[in-house]
Each structure stands twice: as structure tokens, then as C-alpha cells.
């Protein structure tokens, strides 16, 4: 059997091109996701649109509900129209939705904008992950996805600076107007981004796939590569057969608590820190540190999991997250608080990813996509609940309990993933398991 010919210089440039375009798209995704939390303290203090703390929590949940819808429908839509077109559509949707928020005159219209933005945000991330997985160079899929995920947190950092530079002089609407700017990136994405070769081959568009492969001097994917099972409901039921039902529920509960914590803290961190007596500039600095920690965590957690095991790292990371979030409810010197926020970001943002890695490792190739997908989907309900919970606590005058409530979510995820890890360690690893799939909330 002859070895494959080496990639040409042009072929070697294809992966960086795709990853770079996807990285920018996910950067804008992160900016749009985190901008609401960054401007929320200003909106509440100025009573923008007559918004109350309870309504603010509801609005935060609208976006995460939209993300749930977008994430659950992305695969089906991408299978019909292609991954490139879906990415273009998602960037267009959340950019226009931010424009709706910028010009909204009522809470209802603003809520509509955040919901539509959530649909675009939820659809973009899994599609971008699929794209970079297709074009990642051999043996570097996990590393490539890890690099991609740093863009989401870089967008969170950018949102803090946008709010810091624009909100005081120009108002909160200016911050959402900036989030319309990714529309300028849409033509570039549509023109330069290649379609997924795997999608073209799977759809029988062989001539188009060959032309694209020849253009970049790369090989076509194997058309005989294994596909996902046709009976998706059968694959889902397989997660509950025998003794698997308990393990499945433990993973789902851990994911629910994890995403409740991730999106609850992402939405309410600046506001809760303002409630602890920090000025707005310091509160936004905490957003920068939190997301900077997320970037570091994404690059560290994978290596630690390879050495010590993803379930163990996920449980320890959630325990450390719970401790860090609880400490934020205690008034500390500014430098100590900054360090706690940074470390909390390191552990929190990668702890949830390690749940997915755990599920992937413990699954067989035949049901891996179903297992990871449903674990993520159930977690999305926590993502909806987290922002709402923070708003209800503030509306009831119990803002001091916000960090404590989120810390308890971290403790629950520690328990659930820990018990799941202990149960799985007593059973043989399923045959055919391989490299863990790296994904996100």
C-alpha cells in the first residue's frame, strides 16, 4: 500500500485559512454573547427601557434559550444547506439581531433581538467545530478545536473593552451597535471560506468536491468513512439500556449544573461585583480576567486530562470553581479578587468541556455523537436557568446569595461527575473508544 503524497505548500495553507476564518467568526460569537453581561450594570443603573433585575435575568435566558434552539437544529440545517452557508447565515443573524437590540424601544423588542441572536450563536459554534475538524491536519484535531475555542473567550474580553470604552460616553446602545460590525465580515466569509469536503462528498457533489480539492491540492475524504447511525432515536434509547440509564442521567445532571454556572456567571459577574462594592471599571476588568482564564484553561485542561483522566479533572475543576465563585461573595483586596476571578475562569470554562470529553471517552463510536449531543442539549437547560436565577435573586433583594447559588451548582456538578467517574471505573471501557471529542457548551 503506497503512502499518501505529502501535502503541497498550498494544501498546508488550507487548514490555517479555515481555522483563521472560523476563529474570527467565533470571536464575534463571543463578543455578541458576553456584551449583554458587560453592559447590564449600566442598563440597570440607568433603568434603560425600564428594565428591572427580574426582567434582566429573563432577557439573559432568552439568549441562552435561542442558543438551545440553534444548537439542536444546526446539524439538521447544515446537512441540508452545507456548513459554509449555515456559518454565513448564523453570523448574519446574530449581527442583525444586535442591531435590533441597539434600536429597541421596549423590553419586548430587546428580548426578541437577544433571542434571535441566541439562535445564531447556538448554531455557529458546533458548525465551526465541524469545519475545523474537517480541515485540521492529521492528529491535531483536538488541538485545533482547543485553539478555536480560545476565540470565544477572546470575544468575552473584547466585550468588556467595548463596554468600558463606549458605554459611559455613548450609552449602552453604542455597544450593541458595535456588534453589528461582523456583517462586514460576512462577504469575506462567503467568498473565501471553502465548503466542507466531507459534506460535498456525502451529498454526492463529487465534481464540486474534486474541483475544491484540486484548487487547494488536498486529498478528498474517504467516501466510505463511517457515518452516524440512521436510527437516531434508537441510538438515544441505547443510552438508557441496561445499567447505562444511571450513568447517562449523571452526565446530564453534571452538564446542567455546569452550564448553569457558566452562563449564570457570564451574565451576572459584572453586576454582582458592582453589588459587592467595586466600581464599573473594576467590574469590567473582572470580565477580562475571567475570559483570559478561560483561554488558559482550555489549553491546560486537555493536557491535564490526558495525564490524569478527564472525569477526575472535571470533578476537581468543578470543586475549585465552586470554591472560587463562593470566595467572590467575600470582600477581599482588589489584587486578591483579581487572582480569584482569573483562576475561577481557568477552572470553570474548561470543567464543562471535560464533561463532554468524559462522555466521549466512555462511548462507543456508534453512539458517541448521540451521547455527547444529548449531554450538551440537557446542559443547555441549565444555561437558560442560570441567567434567570441571578435575576430572580436580585429582584428579591438577595443579590448577596448570587455567588453562593452559583457555587452550589458547581458543587452539584462535582458530585454528579465524580459519582459517574467512580461508577465507570468499575466497568470495562467500551470497545472501540478512541480519542476524546473536544467540544463546548
Distance between the termini: 41 Å
Strand content: under 5%
What is the element string, with H for helices and E for strands? HHHHHHHHHHHHHHHH
Shape: globular
Number of strands: 0
Helix content: over 70%
Per DSSP, the total helix count is: 16
Sheet having the most strands: none
Residue stretches low in confidence (pLDDT < 50, at least 5 long) are 1-9, 225-230, 431-440
Give the helix/strand class.
Answer: mainly alpha
Mean pLDDT across all residues, rounded? 80
Cα-based radius of gyration, to the nearest Å: 22 Å
Task: Provide a short characterization of the protein structure.
The chain is an all-alpha fold. 78% of the residues lie in helices and 0% in strands.
Describe what this molecule looks like in 3D.
The structure is a single chain. The chain has 16 helices and no strands. By secondary structure, the chain is mostly helical. The longest helix is centred in the first third of the chain and has 37 residues, at 9-45. Residues 1-9, 225-230 and 431-440 have low confidence and may be disordered.
How would the blueprint of this fold be written?
Layout: H1 9-45, H2 53-81, H3 83-103, H4 107-135, H5 141-170, H6 172-178, H7 186-192, H8 197-202, H9 206-216, H10 232-238, H11 244-275, H12 280-308, H13 310-327, H14 334-361, H15 368-395, H16 402-425
Helix pairs in contact: 1-2, 1-3, 1-4, 1-5, 1-11, 2-3, 2-4, 2-15, 3-4, 3-6, 3-7, 4-5, 5-6, 5-12, 11-12, 11-14, 11-15, 11-16, 12-13, 12-14, 13-14, 13-16, 14-15
